[in-house]
Amino acid sequence: MCPSASWRILMGTPTEVIFTYIFLNYRMPESLANRRKRMGSLKLRRLTQAYLTPYDQLAKDSSGQRIDEIYGITQDLILNYQSVTSGLFPRSSKDKSLGYVKDSIYCAMACWACSKAYERMDDDRGRQTELRQSAVKTMRGILFSWMQQVDELNTFKNNNLAKHALHARFDLETGLPIESHADHGYGHLQMDLIALYIIAMVQMISAGAKIIFTHDEVCFIQNLVFYIERTYRTPDFGMWERGTRYNRGQPELHASSLGLVKAALEAVNGFNLYGSAGTSASVVYVDIDGHDRNRTTFEAILPRESNSKNTDAALLITVGWPAFATHNKAIFDKAVTKCVRRLEGKYGMKRFLRDGHLTELEDNTRPYYEEHETHKFDSIESQFPLFFACIAITAKLKGDDKIYDEYWNKLQGLLVSDSSVSGGWILPECYYVDEVNAEEEKKHGGTELSPVSPSEFGHHLWSNAVYIILLLLRDNLIHPGDLDPINRRMPASQRPKNLNRHSAFQGSMEGADPVVQMAIISESTRLQSMLSTYGIPSQTPHEVEPIQIWPSARMVKVFECLGRSKRLGLSGRPARPFGPLGTSKVFRVFGDTILCYPLLFEVKDFYLSSDPAVLIDNIKRDVEFVAKRWKLDGRPTMCIVLREENVAGEYLDHILDLLVQLKNGYVNGVRVRLGRVHQLLNSACMEHVDFASSHDIDFDVAPLEETQGGQMLASHTSLKEGSDEEITETNMIAHNDHELTEIVARDCGDSPRSTAFAIWILMTRHGNEHEVNGVRLETRLDRIYRRACASRSWWLVRYCAGRLRKTMNSLAPGITSILVRGKQVTLGDRRVREVTLNKPHTPVEIVHLLFSSCPPDDPQAAVMQQELIIACADLIAHNSEAFNGVLTIRLSWLQEAIKLLLQYVKCSDLLGTSASCPPTPQTTGIPTTHHKSIAQIVGSMKSVKRCDIYDLSPTVIKDVVRALMTREHWHLLSNLQTRRLNGSLNRVPTDFYDRVWKILERSAAGIVIAGQYLPQQPTLSDMTQFELNFSYKLEEMMSTIVHPEYRQLIVELLCIVATLLERNPEVAFHDKFDCEEVIWKAFHLYGDQEGIEQRTDLRPFYQLENVNMKTSTATYLTKAIVELILNSRHISREFDIHTRRHRADSPKENDPENACSVS
């Protein structure tokens, strides 16, 4: 049919018929039809393939296949061992009873990392949710277990005792604490463990996980922050749960714990536990001063791990992933390099030197070692491949591909085949030295180590969890941001700003330090008018309204509501004072704006602030400290409260100098901005406090109120003069109660000492609550104390402070600052007892030790030792070199050194100074970089009428301590004076302890020092030359010496012996080397030469000058030693004078880098 005919037939036909006809009769070209036919069948096959093909035969892309392989490994090595009830993980796959918190956290991190890999897949087949929820279950399981210990948590926050620590392991099925005798001796106190949990929790919540559900749980996490804030003075058992290297159940301060806590506080500060959808009620607060103390202590200890551990593999986890506790490249490199150099082996890293864990020589049936057991593990420590994986992850996150590839390749050779696991390979917990090869390894090294058998001990979950994370990074299945969403790997200044954070530490500011804003508050209009005449602007409390000026103690009461939960029984924040950083914030409380002034302006504080010179020095120090340590958004705002007694007397000029510096905009090189309070608010750091309500707080401290002002103190000198300066407490004891009561009732201003003595005697007879004319005795004594502070009668101030048991708030941080620099502090007086502190203590413990170790008839001693602690802490923080050679700061002897210097000044015309030199503070002059000269110090000491240290002002005490420690102008002193002062300061040459170690190596029968015996064995086998414990042992032996001169003579003798032995390697002592015998022998040689008949007094020997080698102590000591060597035939080795070799084995030479220096 022709087309035209066909068209005519279709005219008038329905449309659907027409289209049907066209479809049936129209023929497309053959090639196009075939092509479309093939495309249609291909499309059909693609649509139906997923439903018609078995799963195992589906084609996969490489990334999807790889993640499924890793999922299989995770399932076999991790998930299969998670408790279905508690969510906890065991330490090894064969353990069915104990769930360990640390291992569970790492397993949760592995599950979480694997879930992030599945997050990128279009079809994860539900595995992302499964893995993520497994991690959440673990984190909540740990939270549940700890919440069963609320009572322990509340107690620990206040006393930091190990017996109240949160547990590190629980029953695997129930998640409850283990009630067994063996668990009571376990090292549960692990501050790094709590910190690791907080870091992992913040990372997961930042990535979208929901871990915290209720406000009570928010309160519990806040209390975990309180738990770890004081790690800087809390010795713990560390990451390995053993405490010191000796595994004797003794905790110590660990750098790894401090670093993890520092990182945790930075991670959780201002973080919202409900995620981006949370309100301010779920925000966590961190004490910025507590964070700074942890950071300072951490950096001071590094690169050491602790007193007993020169280094530790735990530091790799601390400075690297997951904590990234430091971003200071020098500190990071020093710590890591030391770890690698000391601990790295072919099969992994040793945990620390002489670690017996999982060695074949260890008796694992005992929780602790015997006293001298660790020496048998020397050079045969097990090696842990886990740390190679940690180094590789850290390098990957930091972008160091060279280190990453190096340790990845090392790790591949350490995997162990296991057909029961997907992939067929696992990472063993460690490699150990076989017992038959132990001696060979000790002598020569290089023996083959064997992996711990997984069939015998099971798979180590922690090691394989970290390895799974490394696999995910290696195959680019996760990125650094997935593993570290809060960017801990980056310095704080380079992290993207997170708008959801309530607050965040910003890290060191690039460029200049922040501007410190200053507001001056005058207590009265009278004082304000006086300052205005000098051009100094200030405001009264009335003028700044509605802004309120609070003492920091009042804000502490508000913060006690933080973290409080009645339903859980949580007590909230302990009553910890705010430091300079905390009081530099502006607070919004109950709708009011609050500005807090620092503790140094508190009237009820320790008497140091009553010395205007100390006050000025502390203000400058705080300004410098705040500028250097400020890490928050906004400028720090400091409030200076001036009272009339601060500007009275001769110190007015120095106060004005400081205020002029503030007005000019620079103090000690720090930029400051002095302004009115209202002008400073816009740029200040604002802290909104909405966790408390006014009816929940019972304030016992009032805000600062304006006073009327009174008659200013004309001169403190006239007020110090009294008619009863010669009266002693002993004279007053003979009075009866009636006479004493009359003296107290009169309260005559001309005889304040008599009144104070009378009050104290009545208190001892009738108690503190006894009243005279309706006023308690303790209140009366406190009034005298206040008046003495105002008049600066320092003897009376210290007497009243001692009787009232006044203490400083900064004692514990001050002692910790000294201890972490490798020193130790001896409190007390030898007339009662002396107590040496080589680990941090709580303030309550320190106060008890101070007042119980000082003589009851010398009440000033306890408060004077507090002054000395603070003086030493300030000096060592700013000039640690001043303490080179001083390992033990013996406070009673330091006090004696000050008395000696005072005596030398009184008995001589040192520097030709006169008593007219004013006792000005060391930093009050306009040239702020110069300390007070020795002439000023001498003038200040000569101005004291009586040769009594208690009459000196706190400023002079502080300056004398600095002059003693820095040895300024010591060349003006005689040899005997120098020897006495060095002995009093416990100063020795910086290499003294290393040289004594070498003497001990050459003394087979040991050494006797001051009647104390130090055996060669097991000392050499139990200790190492480069650990502080050997130095502490020597100091303990010499602490029994009564006279400083004799102690210094012992030090000189040992240095001479060490020199002789170094120059004569053929010499060795076979009998006990008794230092006292040698000194007396030298004295007899001196006596024979000088014809001295009285041979019982060594004082003539002490006074010998060392300028003339023929008549010096060194000469006679050397002669005595040579006689001992020759007469006792201590040359027992054949010595070749031509080749300088001896046939016997020479003493073991130690790496000089290992040497323990006290500097």
TrEMBL record:
Recorded superkingdom: Eukaryota
Molecular function GO labels: calmodulin binding
Main function: Phosphorylase b kinase catalyzes the phosphorylation of serine in certain substrates, including troponin I.
Predominant location category: membrane
PANTHER family, per the entry: PHOSPHORYLASE B KINASE REGULATORY SUBUNIT, PHOSPHORYLASE B KINASE REGULATORY SUBUNIT BETA
Domain (Phosphorylase b kinase regulatory subunit alpha/beta C-terminal): residue spans on this chain: 963-1085
Domain GH15-like: 70-892
Pathway, per record: Glycan biosynthesis; glycogen metabolism
Pfam families, sorted: Glyco_hydro_15, KPBB_C
Basic and acidic residues composition-biased segments: 1139-1151
Record-level GO BP terms: glycogen metabolic process
Subcellular location: Cell membrane
UniProt topology in membrane: Lipid-anchor
One GO CC annotation: plasma membrane
InterPro entries: 6-hairpin_glycosidase_sf (IPR008928), GH15-like (IPR011613), KPBA/B_C (IPR045583), PHK_A/B_su (IPR008734)
Chain intervals for the UniProt region annotation (Disordered): 1139-1159
Family as reported in the entry's similarity comment: Belongs to the phosphorylase b kinase regulatory chain family.
Protein name: Phosphorylase b kinase regulatory subunit
Keywords: Calmodulin-binding, Carbohydrate metabolism, Cell membrane, Glycogen metabolism, Lipoprotein, Membrane, Prenylation
